[in-house]
User: Fold these one by one.
Assistant:
Number 1:
Amino acid sequence: DSGVTQTPKHLITATGQRVTLRCSPRSGDLSVYWYQQSLDQGLQFLIQYYNGEERAKGNILERFSAQQFPDLHSELNLSSLELGDSALYFCASSVGGGSPYEQYFGPGTRLTVT
Amino acid sequence: AQTVTQSQPEMSVQEAETVTLSCTYDTSESDYYLFWYKQPPSRQMILVIRQEAYKQQNATENRFSVNFQKAAKSFSLKISDSQLGDAAMYFCAYRSVYSGGGADGLTFGKGTHLIIQP
């Protein structure tokens, strides 16, 4: 158990809908990362937040957005969902916002778009 | 942008034998971190081993060791005395030491599916 929690574990929704994935980082970790794992694209970095502020962006679509709240939990919002958005979405956390810090991964949220 | 390539989609090894998983990467940076992550059927991402590019000594964690060849941009993982619990997808990953502009995220290879034959 990494100490990172993600809810829900599974989510099934229809095309065109909007969903919110939630992540609670390990106690004391200020940085949260979101990754997408799909059959087509593999594992991709989406976005990072550090202490409430957006820190870095990866291959995140404009239909997707994220935020980190004062209690440091983070939410990833996916809108206008398409079949191709079906994937496993991971959240990871680290103590700091820079490279020396190890990222600890949560168990993931499996999103199925039908 | 950095890229990570794992050329072996699947590898098979007998229990108790040794197996080496390959990884190559492309970068123009001189300092960075490299990782091997394990993803068992549970889908949890587990850090296996990490290597700092400025260190010449290869990292070792129990039965897991790496062969880091900086000039060749190669980073292979050796698993000794393979166990049934080692069966998983293994991902090689790169991370820049420079913060900002997407540099903090990990760049992953496509993965190698490791099968352990009893």
Number 2:
Amino acid sequence: QSALTQPPSVSGSPGQSVTISCTGTSSDVGSYNRVSWYQQPPGTAPKLMIYEVSNRPSGVPDRFSGSKSGNTASLTISGLQAEDEADYYCSSYTSSSTYVFGTGTKVTVL
Amino acid sequence: QVQLQESGPGLVKPSGTLSLTCAVSGGSISSSNWWSWVRQPPGKGLEWIGEIYHSGSTNYNPSLKSRVTISVDKSKNQFSLKLSSVTAADTAVYYCARDRRAAGWFDPWGQGTLVTVSS
């Protein structure tokens, strides 16, 4: 199984919005709503930010939102803040009853 | 709340077997959850290794399947990972995580443990 494709990096100024794409295939992202997103600041474990495409766990700011169209899922951070600077990974369930992660995106706050 | 903690040797020799344990606290490993292992080579992305249910049912990443065994010990409320025939490419931070299979997400995660493969 191949990793889901994400842009290596995105950046924005405080207060701006950034969107991270996560492109898979009809065997993963395109067929299941079991898409999730994780935030990973340097040296820390990943933290769940979005699950089932667009749901936020308790405690995650509503600045974070998710969506999906076809084989591509997206994470949008609105009103970017300095504390949002981190690596972000998407994940999807697959038709092989396995999981696959995205290649990861570094978000930089200018 | 559920917490996970990885433990095991930080250094494994090439061709040897990597063995890690994940202790689950604040909840039962026999609840309706799966339990996963995920790894991250230094400076690289996340890779799903495999998962187990308390019944012993497992699913593995096809690329690692021939070398991976995940097991569960309900009496100790923990699950384990064994990866055989390791090489330098298996050097990584290894995480354990609760796996909500029905919804497809991982939460919470352990803090991770670095395993280096070197002679």
Number 3:
Amino acid sequence: EPEVTQTPSHQVTQMGQEVILRCVPISNHLYFYWYRQILGQKVEFLVSFYNNEISEKSEIFDDQFSVERPDGSNFTLKIRSTKLEDSAMYFCASSESTSNQPQHFGDGTRLSIL
Amino acid sequence: GQNIDQPTEMTATEGAIVQINCTYQTSGFNGLFWYQQHAGEAPTFLSYNVLDGLEEKGRFSSFLSRSKGYSYLLLKELQMKDSASYLCAVRDEGTGANNLFFGTGTRLTVIP
């Protein structure tokens, strides 16, 4: 069964550094998403992406964050000047459409900011 | 805004049936999803409801009442591997058709 893949599985970064999290969505999916989950808390929506542009973003997704689809397969989340509170599990998800099709999640990248 | 409530923890016995409830308040409604999440792993899709009623899928069933803002996930013939968090997520048409708003999840422990 096709799956969403994320790399790296764990990223440790010094505060203030930039980090790029990578995702390969399921190949025939058109909608891509990033979510984060701080340890012990709920999954929170960050951003959705369709047709090579952001379709929605949450209040969390401020100027520190950006997303890109640099080629036909990768979908990246960049965090500039990381802060301690950015430490979380970051999940990429994709879906075929926005109707009754579920979002399929990758295994996540655990980001630890020191 | 969105408000999604689930019990924090539940315990049930292997072989039994358990019902996990979810209530929600959203400015618009465009579907409710249930996901299973084992500790340290990704959420995996279980079920989807957009119309009132029961959707059955093997040992798992999900029910929706839009007028009451209420859903439940029913797990039958519980197995030890069902120990996980169960996440209720609502797609809110009021903010756009794409993103999901998650509850805090219900941590289910299945005991022998």
Number 4:
Amino acid sequence: DQQVKQNSPSLSVQEGRISILNCDYTNSMFDYFLWYKKYPAEGPTFLISISSIKDKNEDGRFTVFLNKSAKHLSLHIVPSQPGDSAVYFCAARKGNFGNEKLTFGTGTRLTIIP
Amino acid sequence: NAGVMQNPRHLVRRRGQEARLRCSPMKGHSHVYWYRQLPEEGLKFMVYLQKENIIDESGMPKERFSAEFPKEGPSILRIQQVVRGDSAAYFCASSPSGAGGSPQHFGDGTRLSIL
């Protein structure tokens, strides 16, 4: 039962252009969403998050958009840089105490082409 | 570096042996989570602990796996009588609060290989 889905296993984007990574979820109880970036042989690094009461959150080159009615979120990276090449994981959780586990998607491997 | 520390980074065991994975959370964090990542898959939740308490172990296999987070010392994930299918990367994360907007911060993982 894959409650968080990243349907694109890989994505290639030219340096300087916009990278858009997508994520869909099925559980309407999720109310907090996070994006993590992962390099090989390292742990996931937190990038940006969004609460279900918002539809957009921006931090520098990274913006996350949430469409609750469609149960869809996306991560925009602009402009894309070579150091952005990594695997990106979307994660979701229910915010109530005692329900803090993160449910991850399977990841999208982003390659930035110089 | 005050990040989440996991050791060992790599662990090789033969079938039937025990594996012990350690995790020291970030300073000031009292919540610890363990996740497992199989090749080409996302991370799967195993267990959530606070000091001396297991809060949620819904992702933990019922047999051979156990976790603790004692009052003093690191959190330990213990796998008894390991089998080939236990080969995976095991990640620990910590957070300062169990609720609200605190993201979980991850260690670099322990890569467990079963011969």
